[in-house]
Amino acid sequence: MKKYIAIMTLIFCACSSNKSNNSTTIPYIFPNKVTSLMSDYLMKNKDISFLHLSRSNNDWVLTFVKCDGCDNDNLIKNTNRKVYVNRKFYPLLFDSDEKFSIKETGDYLISTDMESFNRQTFLLHNKYHIIFDQNDAVKYHGF
Rounded to 5 degrees, what are φ and ψ at 85? Predict the structure, then answer.
């Protein structure tokens, strides 16, 4: 019986560790009008690095970000949240990623005070964005 429990525990741990890797995509699909605007913009601007989703009052703000040599490349590459548009997946980051994620990893995390971490920052000004409400009505799109 003890061998059975030990084997089941090992199998459970192995399965749990496989589920936590970033190979699993969490696909996001937006309302039709938003997706149509996204599609139009992305057809003309193929060099978008990621999409950023945030809240402003009761509205959603979806921002299109192009970055060359971003300081948050690691975050962009490792997110498993993806927006599906034009038969392609684009990385999706949230405003909470900016607020709470850090650039450092590994041993640095063990030996450092939490307040001294180098926080991620996204430059979202003067970027194309779509603002839509909780009822999926587009309120604004542009720069």
Answer: -145, 140
User: What span, in angstroms and rounded, lies between the C-alpha atoms of 123 and 68?
Assistant: 12
Encoded amino acid at 8, one letter:
M
Task: Determine how many CB atoms are found less than 10 A away from the CB of residue 74.
Answer: 13
Report residue 84 as tokens.
Answer: 């599906």
The token pair at 119 is 């926080």
23 or 52, higher pLDDT: 52
CB 125 within 8 A of CB 65: no
Q: What pLDDT is attached to residue 78?
A: 84
Asked whether the predicted pLDDT for residue 105 surpasses 70, the reply is no
- Where does the chain have alpha helices with state H? 2-19, 32-44, 73-78, 95-100, 107-110
pLDDT tens per residue, range 113-129:
555 444 455 556 568 99
Average pLDDT of the chain to the nearest whole number: 76
CA quadruple 114, 93, 122, 21: dihedral positive or negative?
positive
Q: Are 30 and 36 in contact (CB under 8 A)?
A: no
Expressed in percent and rounded to 5, the helix, strand and coil fractions of the chain are 35, 30, 35
